[in-house]
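As a warm-up, study this chain.
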Amino acid sequence: MDTLGVFVGLDYHDESVQVCVVDREGRMLANECCRNDQRAIVDCVHRYGRQVQAAVESCTGAANLADELVAAGWQVNLAHPGFVRRMKQNPDKTDWHDAHILADLVRIGYLPRVWLAPESVRELRQLVRYRQQLADSRRTAKLRIRALLRQQRLRPPGGINAWTRRWRKWLLEEAALSVQGRWVVEQHLWELASLAERLREVETRLQSLCENDPEVIKLRAQAGIGPVTAWTLRAEIGRFDRFRTGKQLARFCGLSPRNASSGQKQADAGLIKAANPQLRTVLIEAGHRLARYVPRWRQLALRLRSAGKPGSVVAAAVANRYVRALYHQMLAA
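Now compare it with the structure written out below.
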């Protein structure tokens, strides 16, 4: 059995993992529930063979389990959960069937794989996503303050821009807020100060972590890419050479138009849904900047606007073309 090897499907859960083992002919050797523990899973499978090819659907915690199993000598692939779901075509939705299908897909070489990012990239990804969570919280707090001012029909004097020192002074000392409204505003301002401090801390940590990263250095050398964009691209893309073409990378970033065609009718229906939302946001924001400040992309934006395209479509188109060009620049650098 050892010389032939076995194929394993792992249906991952927080407390347990359903383990299915099949041989090269597809005969099921075992399908049982194990503790979510590397040693327990290895002991279960090694009763049937030690040359192991395994598959586990990509989900929270699956990458760390894959690393542990690779250290035990296994060959482990992460499976794309969306594609696997469409391929199952099985009315029975149980852990037993899910593990069996994963084992069979890896056996016949038809498993839709996703990239298993190394631990260093996953660590960077945690920091980048935490920073984005803080930035989202800051935006939410600001929106709540603006909503409260609208509710109480308060506007700053002319010539005072929001969030400047003069605006904050007006808000705290001059605005005719109600008693409870003033208390709520003070709480939001305290929250904003706390978020600003935490953002500085995480950005300092990111700067230190990426200071000597060659991919980040190459990204920072490209036009239109600042530190936050570079950190996000490095964390979410990892390696540019894992994509075959720039078009494939643009689709991964969520910048490709979704086709909605039938028969003789050809139409686009916005951007594709299945994509990395954080990458899409960062790159579309970069598209807005590029359309304003970089001559090459400004010309493209002007041409699209003259054709009647709205600003959001223009920014997405610029971002799409830009990331495809960036792909070739990063491979050549």
